Amino acid sequence: MKKKRRRLKKKYRRRLQLILILGIVGFVVVYQLNNRSTDTQQTTMATVVPKKIIKRTFTKTPYVQATVDTSNLDVNTATDADYSVPIYETASTSSTVIGQTYDGVWSDYHGTEGAFYKIKTPDNLVGYIEKEHGKKATYKVQTTINSLDELTVVLDPGHGGDDVGSLDNTETIYEKTLTLATTKTVKKTLEAAGINVIMTRTKDSEYTRLAKVAEITNNANANLFISFHYDNYDYANQAEGYTTYYYYDHSEAFANTIHTQLAANNSLSDRGVQVANYMVLRNTFVPGILLELGYLNNDNDLAIMNTANYRQMVADAILAGIENYYNLSK
């Protein structure tokens, strides 16, 4: 009986030892797992990089846009005088008229005197216009661009709808069709680089009024504006090449930068950068250009520019020009 009790005690003692050993092993395993989890969390936290703070600077500048009621004007017979606004020497209609500004033109705002705005026109004429012929607005312009995804660019495919624009010598290729195809290629290229793009029309059947084009651009708070066109001359095969146009002084640098890139890989004749009083440029406040990318009624130009390769060359040149303009070149 005593031996049996001893065997039972020894048996229970072994079981107890086994339980204690298993308990200790389990504790050690859990402890190590907890430490490993903590180490992993600490490592993960240590590799988190704080988000870079991007500093953006803006300037707010007041301007006055000349306005003329054109609702009763016949565009076929209207002259420049019908779109003009007189500029007076002093804040009085009885003072000397020293010049004119025109519907849609933006001028620097220099103050208000009674029923007049004091302005400085793009050609540096300082004087007064009546408030009823001016619209004061303050534009906020981002002066530092840190990356392309901060940009909004408005692209305008010239003509559209019933306004077919220029024609080729066979009268089967329309300017409106080429401008839309070109703009779509540019849009795809710019968006791939991160730029926000707005088009003033997206269909061949659409037509957007010139005043509406400027309105879209100004209301979008866009950074840049580009209008696409293809040229035409009175006589077939007598004119050739591409041209970049701008209107305001603050658009000149942008025009030169884009034109330089276009010239780098363009086999058409270079007609240079020129100033032009086009409505879409005149009424648009942001830096803007109008591109004439070749002559439709020049057979040699047409053979080159009516191709996907030419449209892609234009798109690549515009992207490179924008990068250079904002010093964002890779």
TrEMBL record:
GO terms for cellular component: outer membrane-bounded periplasmic space. InterPro entries: MurNAc-LAA_cat (IPR002508), N-acetylmuramoyl_amidase_3 (IPR050695). One of its GO terms (biological process) is peptidoglycan catabolic process. It comes from the Bacteria. Keywords: Hydrolase. Its EC number is 3.5.1.28. It is an enzyme of class 3 (hydrolase). GO terms for molecular function: N-acetylmuramoyl-L-alanine amidase activity. The keyword Electron transport does not apply. CDD domains: MurNAc-LAA (cd02696). Residues 214-323 form the MurNAc-LAA domain. This is N-acetylmuramoyl-L-alanine amidase. It comes from Enterococcus italicus (strain DSM 15952 / CCUG 50447 / LMG 22039 / TP 1.5).
